[in-house]
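for the writeup, i need someone to sanity check this before i put it in the appendix. the sequnce is what the collaborator sent (i think, or maybe the updated version? ugh). structure was predicted straight from it, no edits. if anything looks off just tell me and ill rerun, i have time this weekend
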Amino acid sequence: MELGRQRRARTRAKIIAAAFELFGEDDGLHSRIEDVAQRAGITRATFYDHFSGMAELRDAVTYEVTHDFLTAVSHTLDTLADPRERISVAIRFYLDRVRKVPGWGRSMINLSANGIIFGAETFREAEQTVATAIAAGQLSITDPALGRDAVLGTTIAAISTMLREERGADYAEEVVALILVGLGVAPGDADAIARRPLPELLFPPPVESI
């Protein structure tokens, strides 16, 4: 039974890895079950042993490629006292990752096109980060969902731009300042916050098994 479980886990991981590669390609948005099965070296029937369809696979891939990164981002944000800076740093981390790993950015674009932008985890975290800033009286908007959409929508658009054309070294900071102003931060403050030194991305220590 244990060998069977391990074999099943390896096959599932192979499918997710193949899908991530496909979603990271220029035409990845149009990836089909047949494409994933061929890339993973499995049959269509085996695919359906693990996933009900492309929608479930997209959710699984989004979780796998964002969870550890999001955990590190959230862990780092917890060290920052200014709620506005938390929004700024989170956006800059995502844009910095795209600059360093373009395939990851293309995957985010293609996965978000047919589902929740950046996945359900990031979607919830973005809204909570905005809600914290609102509660602290740092933003003029009053609806966290509206702020979440402004943050995620502008960020995914910026990622698309970065993948299509060359932008200046301070493009991420310019995007962040624009978003902060839209959320109700004074322009001068928004620009200053966006240009604060980007902290090191902190990964939480591994949980020790009992």
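Residues 54-77 form the longest helix (24 residues). The mean pLDDT is 91.
thx in advance!!
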